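Pipeline run #58 for the internal structure catalog. This entry was flagged by the ingest filter as a single-chain record with no existing model, so it goes straight to prediction. Upstream metadata was stripped on purpose; only the residue string is passed forward. Reviewer on rotation: M.T. Logging verbosity set to normal.
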Amino acid sequence: MGVRASARTRRLELRLQSVEGELQELIRGGGDRPSAPAKPEEMPWEPSDDVVDETVLEERKKHPGKGSVPSVQKAASVAAEPPADGVREDEPEVPRPQPQSLEERIGTRWAVWVGGLALVLGGIFLVRYSIEAGLMTPAARISSGALLALVLVGAGEWLRRRSLSGAAEVAEGAPYIPGVLTLAGTTTAFATVFAAHALYGMVGPGPAFLLFAAVALMTLVAAVLHGRAVASYGLIASYIIPFLVHSDQPAVWPLALYGIFVSLAAYGVARVRLWLWLAFAAAGGALFWGHVLAFASGGPWDAGALAVYSLAVFAMAAFVFVISLYPRNAGDEIERQDWAAALVLFLHAFLIIYLLQIDGFGSVSLSALVVVAAALLVIATEWPAAAAAAIGAAVLMTFAYLSWQVPLSPVDLQQHVAAASRIAAALANPSAENFTSVGLLLAALSGCMGLWGTLRSSGRWALAAAGAATPLALLAIAYLRVAPFETSVFFGALSLILAAAFLAALVFLDRRLPADGPGREAALAAYTVGTVGAIAAGMAILLEQGWLPVGLALLAAGTMWVREKWPLPALSWVSLGVSVLTCLVIAYEPTIVGVDRLGRTPVFNALLYGYGVPTLAFGYCAWSLGRTVQDWVQQAFEALAIFAALVAIAVLIHHAMNGGDFYAPADTLREWSLHTLVLLAGALAAQRLDRISHSPVLSFASLAFGIVSFATIAQFHLFTLNPLFTGEPIGRGLVFNLLFVAYLLPACLCAAIALWTGAERPQWYRLAAGWLGGALIFVWISLEVRAYFHRPHLDRGVSTDAELYSYSAAWLLFGIALLLVGLRWQSRMIRLASAVFVLAAVAKVFLFDMAGLDGVWRALSFIGLGIVLIGIGLLYQRLLTRASANPPEPEERIA
């Protein structure tokens, strides 16, 4: 009664709408009905609507949510402008439908959908109950299900023809009773065929195949007639059915055939009605069903079913998302990349990984892998809008080869006991019978098809990347699994052959591709990277560990030299990548040749060429690139060269200062003194070079070196590693000893930084350098006095009166010397430093010497201090008198 009442209500509504439309046509005075606007050709997935009443459909498209608005609105919108008061006397009042109340929604909408769902579930549970209770024979159950499906589909079609409301209801998303009955019937038909074949064995694979095809075709036709509700609910129900009506011994072949035809029906409806949402839903359902099949499979026979299913759903996805939408390769650049289509194809292709595991990398699964990978490359070539599918092919082949004989199948992963150890053991010991030959096959496939696609397709950026990257990745996997980190002539020769092939392809493409062709630079860059990468791989395989960083560094320099002859923009990036790889290799083995082979010879050992050659190579790259362009790549080379030079000197110092023990702790003032001198010299050198080249890298390096050196001086030289506290021997020499290197030389370099640094550095930087230089001089003089009495160990022995007096005398003499220098060079900073020494001497005499010295040493201390202070006073008085007698010119005072 509810169904009949709803159908009658809809017929009355349509009649009322028709009468209203005719009335408005009469008011308007007649006229032609507006024609439906043409759909833009550039939107392949534009939704379509069923055509029953063109006027109703056209008005619904223009005014969604308002029912069938009379066409007089269009006439009113194009009529003459209304008068000033905004009201036209002859303008008809258009009745607006009132929104539905909650009661109406429950009665007319929700009840229909819930009733349809109840019909589907009721039929399913009735079949399940009949099985459990044994009420009917299998033949009677199947017959009843088929009869129920026919009745439901027939009732839906009868109501659709009676009410003529199918298309209007679908377009508006309102409850559509014929569609609900139809989707219930198609779902019941799927369940009936599945039960007849999988549960009772009443039909074999052949008849089941035909029955599934018939039901799928019926669903396709029904969805085209009844709208998206049938499609969406039918798709969901089709994937749920096997979980509600199941068997204790599931057969994989029926599941595979079932999934194929459900996907075929869903893709067919999506393509006919141009529903993009349904296409993606079908793709998701197909992937879900593929995982279900993988977990249900367990042998070669099941692997065949999974292979058929994987290839079938991949072919359907390729047709729906790419082949039927985009034109074939025309050689022109495409406007956009369809990344979604490429991702869908890759996810469908990835089902082959399950197949490889279940089949044990047999002939069936390997053939399917080759077919799918080749199909992805062909699609990327012939339909450039999905060129990213070539990247999917590269990832698929690489991961498939990496998982060779690795227990990653669903059954293996369910065994949690020692899963990690089993996988690690499999990775380390592959089945070598076909492992290398399959790798060569896949490398040849990807390389040849990638070159072919690069030559003819506008999507060559992805094809070239796949053609160059896949063989390199397969080579690396084969080497690391068969002969890991060993010197292998076979794999080294393969690397060099591959490099030669890439170089030949590079030259060939450079001559054949048009200069303005789309993706030309990207393709050439890909094969350039492949050439350099293959050479680097050959070096890593053939060269011993100590020569690998040298070879890579020379490769980076050689690549930059080739850029000078053949100015491809990608070559600088390739050279930078090889340089970074060189640094990583050195970081992996900082001793270059290993601790046992490094030896104890200072400077002239493997560290010299292992760090020196990369430093020179990075410097050459920076210089070569800087002659033509100064971008961030050139600055990166400058930074690498500076860093490599600093590290090279540091490791040589560390090795020499610790008797060849590379991993000894750096805890002596001897070593840190040399590091500090290197940093200070580097700060000065970078500063001078920056004034010539105006490089931001050199500017930053000079500032950074200075700050780090200041920190090491403040921490190690003055406090932590001071020989007065640590007792480190300074040597037997009075002047040329550890104090000379640790204090006097750093003080001179700090003074140079303070005096030579211009306004391009912060004021605090110059002041820090000056005061640290003064502090180092003060400590050097004091420790030299101590060394005169107690060398080589400054922490031993008792201070005598002569030693205490010597400190005061030394500070005063050095203060006077600084004062004279400051007056000579007119440097206020030097004069202030001299004042610090003099004040230190005054403080010592009055605070310490008065109490600590006895006899003549106390008298000499005060006498000497007095003479010096009076002399300083006389000197300043004379200078001030001379300055007042000869006042400077105004310009000089301003200066």
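catalog note: The radius of gyration is 44 Å.
catalog note: Residues 798-895 form one domain.
status: ready for reviewer M.T.
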